[in-house]
Amino acid sequence: MSTRSWKASAGLHITLVFASVIAVFPVAWVALTSLKTDRATWTRPEKLGTLGVSNYTQVLGETRFLTWFGNSLVVAAGTTVLGVLIAASAGYAASRMRFPGKRPLMWTFLVTQMFPAAVLIVPLYNVMSDLGLLDSYGGLILAQCTIAVPYCAWMLKGYFDTIPVSIDEAGRIDGLSPLGTFWRLIVPLARPGISVTVFYSFITAWGEVAFASVFMQSEGHYTLPIGMATFVSDFKAEWGLLTAGSVLVMLPTAAVFFLVQRHLVAGLTAGGVKS
Amino acid sequence: MTTSTTRPQAGVAPPVPPPRRRVRGLLTRHWYAWAMVTPVVVVIGALVMFPLVKGIYLSLTDATEMNSGRTIGVNEIPATYSFVGFENYIDVLSGSDGAFYSRLLWTVQWTVACVTLHFTIGLGLALLLNRAMRLRGLYRMLLILPWAVPPFVAAFGWRLILNEQGGVANSVLGLFGIDAVNWLGEPLAAKISVIMVNVWLGVPFMMVALLGGLQTVSKDLYEAAEMDGATAWQQFRAVTLPGLRPVSGTVILLGTIWTFNQFPVIALLTGGGPGGSTNILVTEAYERAFQGIRDYSGAATYGALIASMLVVFAFFYKRWLAKQSEEVFG
């Protein structure tokens, strides 16, 4: 590689720097705007005004941001726990056992994980309304499970497929039941895969917009995307609040993301390549 | 094979037992697997299949907010909508509702544009990053950043940047003497904006996945190609692209599904506007169901059409997968 001329090398670095700037700029711009304390400067890109953290204190202290943050956490955690728990055993059965109904089941996972919210949102809304589950955590968690369960099952089956069957056989020789094999041997081995599935379903439920915007009707039950959208509308433009809130959401997500991203790619593509 | 054997041996197909015994036989053999999948089957049945059937039924009625059953205070108003057969589908598919074909066309344009840009930019960056150089780790981390941003946060951030009055995008254009663009307020500009934001969000996944794919392409193949005097372009065509086939097939497929279903970017960036021009099918269905007078049956019709497109898509995907695994493993 030392044969590369300095011109090619410079071109390479210029391209990558340019691309990096495009990748980072919007995030940096949001962070910068969140520190601008003068309202007038939010939409004056060339002006900085005084920088400070007053947007952060305001968003934390004077809005319901923390409530929304909590709601998003509850809904995302509930969806993830429910989704991963029930999907794991099905994923294991689909990976290790032959049984009548397996093909239609895998087919259902494949098709339903493609369904956008738009396909189910109207009938689900009616069902939730009949059951009195609108505007409640439980209702939204169940709705989010329509997205989470199929792809958790699909992804986890992909992971279990990568664990050698000989381990199951060893467990069976030692007298473990299939469920015991699954729980004591396979789950610990699949822990990296499971944690990626957990992260992915958490992050999806956390930022889900369509169901959340329809099912959660009172301000106290909004999740983050719905609540934060109220900061900037046709009638007001609280960019300071919106950007400060965005930074507060981005920091923890990005931190965890960078920890798991390598596994994330493997997980997302593994399920697709080997069915 | 003789049919006189009464006790089937392993590997020989048993004669069909009477139905009762057959069910019991299946149960004893498969109860474990069935028990393990039961929770998922129940959840999918109750939350996906039942609503799906109900949605299809709704699409055959004229249900709107006005004639659906509802409770106002203590008064319960019964539903008064009625069965109309395929009227909604005829309305939508004949184009007389005015929106379907333009939305479909835009959905296709949006999906093709986004996925093409995701893939080409992602591949380009992956090729650059796949070389030994200084600062490689840093570049990789910076370029991956958009993927770490939740889409709803990205939509908010880009709204700030693309704001007509005082957005930084317009002031950058101003530096070059270009007039301010009403990014989110004019149909064409809004379409370009939503594609731009979605490309920004989606390139990192493609880049990382393709980078992983590039590292699995055997170095020997490149050496052999070099020995044969292949140019860089010929190496790319004859070694890199075929080597990436399995990965690129998968990521293009995932990208297509994700983009086709992309809700937050469009809903939060333009809200489908101006005048519905950036609505793809999924946001259009949503808008029909929950804005203005809620047109449940119309939205259900869109939902059913979207679902059937996805089923057809999944069918071809399965065939492609089967072919792929034959090539890779067979």
UniProtKB/TrEMBL annotation, chain A:
Its main location: membrane. The keyword Transport applies. The chain crosses the membrane at residues 12-32, 73-93, 105-125, 194-217, 237-260. It is a multi-pass membrane protein. Keywords: Cell membrane, Membrane, Sugar transport, Transmembrane, Transmembrane helix, Transport. The keyword Oxidoreductase does not apply. Residues 69-260 form the ABC transmembrane type-1 domain. Signal peptide: none annotated. InterPro entries: BP-dep_ABC_trans_perm (IPR050901), MetI-like (IPR000515), MetI-like_sf (IPR035906). It is found in: Cell membrane. Belongs to the binding-protein-dependent transport system permease family. MalFG subfamily. This is ABC transporter permease subunit. The lineage of its organism: Bacteria, Bacillati, Actinomycetota, Actinomycetes, Pseudonocardiales.
